[in-house]
Amino acid sequence: MKNTERFSNKVDNYVKYRPHYPVAIIPYLAAEAGLTHQSVIADIGSGTGISTTPFLDNGNIVYAVEPNKEMREAAEKLLLRYPNFRSVTGTAERTTLPDDSVDLIIAGQAFHWFDQEAAGEEFRRIAKQNAYVVLMWNIRQTNTPFEQAYEDLLHRHGIDYKDMKHRNISPAQLGILFAQGSFREKTFQNVQRFDFPALKGRLTSSSYMPDKTNPGYAAMVKDLEDIFEKYQENGMVLFRYETKLYTGLIADTR
């Protein structure tokens, strides 16, 4: 399966159950990357618009570049109310955006899918002089007994979960994009609370987990039920994330 097609049958649950980004990223990027209300943003691998929304709320024009048709169409429906939303059919390696056209390039939960060398060249092409790049991830924590049990379930039932470790993006990979390989890392805390139907939706929003057509689906859901019953408090479980931002000036090789 192509990376650009991995989420085609996951869109509804992705929209409902994936974590959003803390509103605190906006003042942070104003201080760290010169973000203003007038900044033009390119959101690369924008998916259903989760990473796009905070910048639209800030009043920015956002070019949401997404190759997956189903995810792009979901974003178009959800973000129709924003006059500054621009939906773009493109990839990280070929955005179709004009040269020297954006002030800030963001990629939320997406950089690990890119051809990073080719994406770096494309980012430099579309960036204005002294533009910044921001790579963002919501990284699910695995420290509590519930979190560890959920992680074990992913290893047990995931189709290719072991290959999906964006936590392992190296400084060298990150440095491809940034001037002199220099970037600043910032962490925010982020949480979600789920009842069982929402927990199941969160699980099945992941590209590496079986869907209903897979013979292993029923066993996966049964294991999830067992985990939920063991660790729920007042009918809810807590998902904790660290939202990590990597921010720096784009390397300019022109």
TrEMBL record:
Domain Methyltransferase type: 43-134
Source superkingdom: Bacteria
Pfam family, any one: Methyltransf_11
Biological process, per Gene Ontology: methylation
Chain segments annotated as coiled-coil in the UniProt record: none
CDD domains: AdoMet_MTases
InterPro entries: Diverse_substrate_MTase, Methyltransf_11, SAM-dependent_MTases_sf
Gene Ontology MF terms: methyltransferase activity
Keyword Methyltransferase in annotation: yes
Keywords: Methyltransferase, Transferase
Keyword check for Transmembrane helix: no
Similarity comment: Belongs to the methyltransferase superfamily.
Protein's recorded name: Class I SAM-dependent methyltransferase
